[in-house]
Amino acid sequence: MSSKGKDKIHDAPPFDFKFIKILINRKDKKPTEEIMIEREWVSRNNNIPHFANVVKSVDPNEGVEITMNCNSIAFHWIIEFVRLKSNGDELIVKRQATAQGLSSYNKEVLINETETTLYEKMDEISNENCLNILVTSFFLQLTWVYDMVWDYYFARNFSDVLNNCRISLSNINPVLVKDMGTKISESELEKLTERKDKLISNIYKARIEELVVNAGIDFYWCGKCQRLLTKE
């Protein structure tokens, strides 16, 4: 695992206002995990949008404590992943600020190096942690992380991820369900095995709704015959 993404999660004093305290509630009933992340880094370039939105409404001389119900491993992975991206972006800015500046070619080289590092990091994604990473990145409003993980791993291993998931997904975010219904091919959907949490029926519901919207068909519910009818 790359050390670049792990260098700034600190064990800071509880009331050091330069940090925000993240409390991770664990479902396995273990003690709540405390993670300290630099307050300035969270807000810089909107690195973690969800946290940045909280921080901007709090006085700098007040502490920030945020409780999250999420998978701890997925959370750490996301923070490391975002740091890899932000470190790469900041390196470009620093190089551009020097007297020598930064040529277009060298900038492209640095961008490619960062992308390579990110893809190497995504090789750590598995059937076991993929959904947790997607759900947590979506909650943190990290759209670019969500999209990269979706395209790189989830879309290519969709049926394996869901068929090997033994926990109930009845409360999964509706946006994720919609994405599953509209972005995943029908051949992949057919590989899904029956589940008790109604996820599959909700995925197909999302798919049908998308098809109806795209076709421009209006449906109406008839109170007399209790049937769904089109305008025609």
CATH class label of the largest domain: Alpha Beta
Supply the number of helical segments. Answer: 10
Strand order of the largest sheet: 1-3-2-4
Low-confidence stretches: 1-7
Q: What is the first-to-last residue Cα distance?
A: 60 Å
H-E order: EEEHHEHHHHHHHHEE
CATH superfamily label of the largest domain: Potassium Channel Kv1.1, Chain A
- Into how many domains do the coordinates divide? 2
Strand content: 5-15%
Short description:
The protein has 232 residues and is an alpha+beta fold. It is built from ten helices and six strands.
Describe this structure in words.
The protein is of the alpha+beta class. The chain folds into two domains: 153 residues, Potassium Channel Kv1.1, Chain A; 62 residues, no CATH class. The chain is built from ten helices and six strands. The strands form two sheets. It has a four-stranded mixed sheet. Strands 5-6 form a two-stranded antiparallel sheet. The longest helix is centred in the middle third of the chain and has 26 residues. The N terminus is likely disordered.
